[in-house]
Write the structure tokens for this entry.
Amino acid sequence: MQLGEVIGRVSSTQKMETLRGLTMVIIHQVSPEGNRQGGTLVAVDPIGVGEGQRVIYMTGGAATRALESYKRMGAAVDAAIVGIVDSVSLRK
């Protein structure tokens, strides 16, 4: 699992049947402190996040498996949102 920040949305008039009804968002990877790092990616959003929110996301096979709990068997995805971050607490 990784931390990200939602920075936009993607509209798509045509998509695979297994992705119909799912929103896609653009996220930027962030550090636990909230600093942007790494690049951006498109992730499927089955939980309804908003722009500017920090989220937890999964990539690769873990993202595909996460969508199975939303009855989206066979959805081919590289990234999926699995949670909204309320707060982060770090020990120093």
Observations:
- The radius of gyration is 13 Å.
- Helices lie at 61-68.
- The CA atoms of residues 64 and 77 lie 6 Å apart.
